[in-house]
Amino acid sequence: MSEPSLRTNFVYDEWMEAQQLPIYRGHFVPDMRTIKLGRWEQRGCDAAFVQLSGQEGVSEARISEVPPGETLPPYQLAVDEMIYVISGSGATNVWPNGERPDDAHQFEWSDKALFLIPGNHYRRFSNLAGDRPVRLLHYTYLPLAMSIVPDPDFFFDNPYRPKPAEASVFSDAKLITGGQGLRWISGRKGDVAYWYGNFFPDMSAWSRLDSNAARGAGGRSVRIQFANSDMSCHMSVFDAMTYKKAHRHGPGRVIVIPNGEGYSTLWLEGQQPYVVPWQEAALFVPPDRWFHQHFNLGAEPARYLALHPPMQFHGYAEREEDRKRDQIEYPDERPEVRERFERELAKRGLRSVMPEEAYASSKDAWAAS
User: For the domain with range 170-368, which CATH number is right: 3.40.50.2020, 3.40.50.1100, 2.60.120.10, 3.40.630.30?
Assistant: First the structure.
């Protein structure tokens, strides 16, 4: 019998590396539409893994491609899987383990759709266009799950038969208000309005937004809770030629840009910031407890979609005095934050529209303008 050894790697990392696909590391992916993929024979497609600083051991991100006019082989996964359509149009068939594919639920999607596939279900992706490939971003909690059950076959070849899904799982998204128990979605106390469902057709055009004044920049947000799942996300929209307040939280949160042009800064308290440029289809991850701040360099509102880790990793402080240390108000930020933003706008022939009142008080300057 071999001697026991101290585990130094996550089980998920060992499984991921064994697939022999490209693995993108660092702080950001500039454009998911164009990065190089590798052949994944087991899934019958080209794919790549994304494991940026701040994801390790918590969340999985991977990109897959469906060639024009083709259908990929189905696969089963024991955990819920959130999917964002990077580009293309197609259809998905979903059926529970133990059921027949002929009885599958089918729905169609196009660019920038967002949907969730329940755990222990098979899924089959088809490209409905004959002239361009489909690219999908897959987001799961598989790294965390594999740390609890360190056997990959448990997640991909599991005979467990789930209970039949309720009809609401695949029904249209609906607005829920008074969500006292969902304050972790927004990171603030009080009632929270959110959308409950499993399919959102176009995150670049979603207009059912609520004010998110606490983060500045005239921001508006939509908060999404997926049906019968712990998975959630939110999308923020903020004005042209403005920037949001810096804040920090826990690890594992993957941020995708549906549209807009700008940059974000990421930094560990006391250190110099790392600058992440972004535009449509960029992806980045703020590492655990790193401050980050988002800047819109375009002449139109910008959007970012944040795919949340499990709620126990959200990292929001419970006490108000602690929460204040996790956000930097405009009057308290370093002067170079504003200076860099104004320089970058000037390169594009634009000027900041940040209200001067914002730098004088932590109150919402947009409400006063």
Answer: 2.60.120.10
